[in-house]
Amino acid sequence: MAELDPQALSVTKFWRDAGEDAWFEKSDPFDTDLRNRFLELHYAAARRECDGWNAHAEGSLALMILLDQFPRNCFRGTGHMYATDPLARHFA
Description:
mainly alpha; globular
């Protein structure tokens, strides 16, 4: 089995460290920080460049966060926040 991509670990670490308050409450500073750190990686996942992460449980979690949770923050209040939902459901 291939080694887990360190970027996947950075996604899950960030999400866990942020905690539930950040996950479910609107915070412009949190959304901006998340965008600055992970927007390009979200786009890579949307282009299916991270599909190999599914070989590991932690990688699968990171992919779900990138495709389902991060867009809710990155694109809050726009239709884009749902754009990768079908892909997230595909991998779920």
